[in-house]
Amino acid sequence: MRPPSSVREFEAAARARLDPAHYDYFAGGAGEEVTLRANEAAFGRLALLPRVLGGAAKPELGVTLLGDRAAAPVLVAPTAFHRLAHPEGEKATARAAAAAETIMIVSMASTVAVGDVAAAAPGARLWFQLYVQPDPAFTELLVRRAEEAGCGALVVTADSPVRGRRDRDERHGFHDLPTGLCCENMRDETGRVRPIEFSPAISWEHVDRLRDMTSLPIVLKGVLHPADARRALGHGVSALIVSNHGGRQLDTVPAAVEALPGVVEAVAGTVPVLLDGGVRRGTDVLKAMALGASAVGVGRPVVWGLAADGERGVRRVLDLLRAEVEDALTLCGARSVHDLGADLVLRPC
Ligand code: FNR
């Protein structure tokens, strides 16, 4: 059978393979899924206004983020539970990310421990995503594990003081991983697996404590309000990810790409601003970068690749997006992902 030739086709292939409860866990969002739909729809409403006859050669796609090089500005966003999608789980994803020469942000809720992910994918550039745990000692244990695994940054998720309410999971009664799978990073010193806890009390003080605890760069994920973006700069944050968690947390917040310009303006070039949410095509990547993003992350597209065809599927999704970015850049008359300006995008009035 011919391999899928777009993220959309990968989603269909993944859906055909996955248990419906697991498909809905990956695909779904919070509440009425207004934000989930908005993430993709907002990219559709933005038009590209290309330049012609620029005489550019093969465009430059590579980016360097916090000292880590990625061959294309498309990172693997942190997503939980990869072994629900494929038996090799995060090991397969990391090998594919390494082969595609991009950065993978390993979820704290991964079903393979971050050290084992690193060992399975030599050369992979990994960052570690953290939900601050109410027990500070356990949070520190997680940070140390990320450091020992060689992760290049700590991605602190700020948009999840509680877990989003997701009707699809309620309908299926999907609340826990099946027997045999667990969040391997959550083992304490005795080997017992702790539940991931969300911390309603998470505050800027926690960011300060993390800043004191580790020399890893801290990336704050889930920022939408420009005032929070400005505030983050005073707390030693090295980068921001504009994200609404793929529409899985607070429903009816704006599409990520709609929130992007305000955050970019607020930080005024002092730290890189990344975006995730709704990126499905190379043209979406260009639009985000034209509006000031330094790179984007993809969440579900990677899961669809993994469910459809394991490591090979993830590799193909990342390669497809890379090829689409390259084509879109050429068609826009751009020499590099670094040369894109807001004049490339027509925003609806
Ligand atoms: C996520 N996301 C997420 N974020 C995070 O910080 N930690 C996590 O463990 C997870 N887990 C997770 C699971 C699944 C199934 C999804 C779909 C998403 C959010 C993720 O990092 C990212 O913000 C969104 O996935 C981006 O939107 P797209 O690319 O899926 O549209």
TrEMBL record:
InterPro entries: Aldolase_TIM, Alpha-hydoxy_acid_DH_FMN, FMN-dep_DH, FMN_HAD, FMN_hydac_DH_AS. Glyoxylate binds at Y25, Y131, R166, H245, R248. Its cofactor is FMN. CDD domains: alpha_hydroxyacid_oxid_FMN. The active site is at H245 (proton acceptor). Keywords: Flavoprotein, FMN, Oxidoreductase. Pfam families: FMN_dh. Residues 1-349 form the FMN hydroxy acid dehydrogenase domain. FMN binds at residues 78-80, 107, 129, 157, 221, 243, 276-280, 299-300. One of its GO terms (cellular component) is cytoplasm. It comes from the Bacteria. GO terms for molecular function: FMN binding; oxidoreductase activity. Belongs to the FMN-dependent alpha-hydroxy acid dehydrogenase family. PANTHER family: 2-HYDROXYACID OXIDASE 1 (PTHR10578:SF107), S -2-HYDROXY-ACID OXIDASE-RELATED (PTHR10578). This is Alpha-hydroxy-acid oxidizing protein. It comes from Actinomadura decatromicini.
